[in-house]
Amino acid sequence: MTVIYSDIPLTRPTTPLLDRLDSPAQLRSLPESELGQVADELRAYLLYSVGQSGGHFGAGLGVVELTVALHYVFNTPSDRLVWDVGHQTYPHKILTGRREELLTIRHQGGLAGFPNRSESEYDPFGVGHSSTSLSAALGMAIGSAINQPADSQPERRCVAVIGDGAMTAGMAFEAINHIAHVDLDMLVVLNDNNMSISKNVGGLATYFSKLWSSKLYNLFRESTKTLLKAFPSTSGIIRKTEELMKALVAPGIVFEELGFTYIGPIDGHNIPLLVHTLENLKQITGPVLLHVATQKGKGFSPAEKDPIGYHALNKIPTPAGKTSTPAASNAPKLLKYQQVFGNWLCDMAVNHPELIAITPAMSEGSGMVEFAERFPQQFHDVAIAEQHAVTLAAGIACEGKKPVVAIYSTFLQRAYDQLIHDVALQNLDVLFAIDRAGLVGEDGATHAGSFDISFMRCIPNMVIMAPADENETRQMLYTGYIHSGPAAVRYPRGTGPGVKIEQTMTALPIGKGRLSRQGQQVAILSFGALLPTALSVGEELDASVADMRFIKPLDTELLDQLVSDHALIVTLEENAIAGGAGAAVSEYFAQRGVVVAVLHLGLPDIFIDHATHDAQIAAAGLDAATISKRIKARLLTT
Ligand SMILES: Cc1ncc(C[n+]2csc(CCOP(=O)(O)OP(=O)(O)O)c2C)c(N)n1
């Protein structure tokens, strides 16, 4: 029985057994009877550790028993254990020699929040975006099967663990199709907790729920002892085992039809059952899908009741930290860009029944919860299906309605062809609200929105805007909404500078920036939310500062004007320098035959690791002091 906690321990719990486990090999040397205690201690330590560090929470709690069982049965790291998304791997990190370092997770120089090949040999595949595990594990199975005699045991087993949410993505379906075709030994563990970040949606989710409530699952839950007898762990009679397995297969199951041996659903919190089932599955050849039913937030009652709220947890402030907060509480409450978007969406929908908002499984993160409640007919959560989200929007636009696709910059990468081929090429009327544009802090490189300007700028028909503050965000969303054709507004994670938001919506003139500060010699062209930094550098150096607003089309009139009376043009953006807004400025000058000194400031050609956003900005050389230094250095050679 899982121990249920109702508080997060603020001091380190006593974990005598866990403390002895520095590798999965040590776990495997324990008698099976001690695994329950390992799981209890693991959960207690996980609660404590995430309370100290902050980070992903509910998903990890839900896979404590599964993680113990997988490392107990499989010979990791030689056997490959590939986790999907990777936000649920805190227990895996604890068991694979990173127990003490878990306290540093997502902090600069500490563990990454997701599996990372350079961090540990137990992380065979780096991840952060969902639904890659099946393809990666199949690739490993193919790679390790090469040069092996056809009839021999596989050199290593490849296991993918994928959530029911991640299973909704096209990539997962593509892999399932191919896995059956290749027909190598491979285990897919479907970790089904009925949740994505929000409630999981769609036909697949409904189908999984039906399986959960089936007689078969109840049989598994209630008759564990009988079942364990039915799964003799030492049985060498493979055929018999297979027959037993087959007998437990629900008839007509979708995965069976696709060429998998399907087992389950079984209780993912029952360690003896998990261990025995996994042991027996090792005997089965070809692709196997084990359907495991788990509960997100398991073992921490507030998270069990509110799995959405406890998807992630903020660091619990220390008592010392608490005393320093009252001063901060007097500060004006700043709105997040996501709230600005959510409020705009609701305000627009009041008078625009043709507005249809689409999210690929990110309604909380994108600030759409209120909209979904108030305008359910105009809201579509399409599950983790970015490609579908974009082409769906294209289809809606064909019917003369106005789709608004709210999508994180990093996840739009998944839908690049759809953006070009389905939307832009047909010049369809779709507004993209591109969230988390720029560096995103603790989630790190996998989630950084570093490339959207570069990859959108080259697409014909696109209008691309980058607001400098909350009010510009609102007005740009409106501008993009009433614009006919594809338009994108890219805004960052977190709060804006606190600019007053005009409730009245006024369309901005397309392709027009504004001069925010008149100075001399140097003109800083700011594209987006780094404007306050540009202004502070402008003050220090008496430089001109322009809030360019539009990346495409560029305000060429303003460029002509600035180049005529400044010696150095500095472009500033929170996007890759390569192909970014600065590159657009230089291309314009080159086209016009204008020779001028240009300094491009933006994200360098490296992946920037997890840290606070401020630290990441400093690592990119985009803090005010470094910008000022770089400009001064450049002036010396101009
Ligand atoms: C391509 C992509 N889109 C969206 C996300 C954001 N995201 C992270 S976890 C998650 C839910 C995953 O659900 P599931 O696979 O069921 O795992 P659970 O959290 O329920 O354990 C989502 C949508 C992502 N990581 N990758």
Description:
With 638 residues, the protein is an alpha/beta fold. The chain has three domains: 18-313, 3-Layer(aba) Sandwich (Rossmann fold); 337-490, Thiamin diphosphate (ThDP)-binding fold, Pyr/PP domains (Rossmann fold, 3-Layer(aba) Sandwich); 514-636, Rossmann fold, CATH 3.40.50. The protein is 40% helix and 15% strand. It has 28 helices and 19 strands. It has a seven-stranded mixed sheet, sandwiched between helices. Strands 2-3-4-6-5 form a five-stranded parallel sheet, sandwiched between helices. Strand 18, helix 26 (581-592) and strand 19 (597-603) form a beta-alpha-beta unit. Helix 6 (133-145) runs parallel beside helix 7 (170-182) and helix 24 crosses helix 28. The longest helix has 19 residues, at 35-53. Residues 232-239 and 323-327 have low confidence and may be disordered. Thiamine diphosphate binds next to loops.
List the helices and strands and how they pair.
Layout: H1 24-28, H2 35-53, E1 55-56, H3 58-62, H4 64-73, E2 80-83, H5 90-98, H6 133-145, E3 158-163, H7 170-182, E4 186-192, H8 203-212, H9 215-222, H10 224-230, H11 238-247, H12 254-257, E5 261-267, H13 271-281, E6 287-293, H14 301-305, E7 312-313, H15 319-323, H16 325-329, H17 337-351, E8 355-359, H18 369-374, E9 379-381, H19 386-398, E10 402-408, H20 409-412, H21 416-424, E11 431-435, H22 452-457, E12 463-465, H23 470-482, E13 487-490, E14 514-517, E15 521-527, H24 531-541, E16 544-547, E17 550-552, H25 556-564, E18 566-576, H26 581-592, E19 597-603, H27 613-619, H28 624-636
Parallel strand pairs: 2-3, 3-4, 4-6, 5-6, 8-9, 8-10, 10-11, 11-13, 12-13, 15-16, 15-18, 18-19
Antiparallel strand pairs: 1-7, 12-17, 14-16
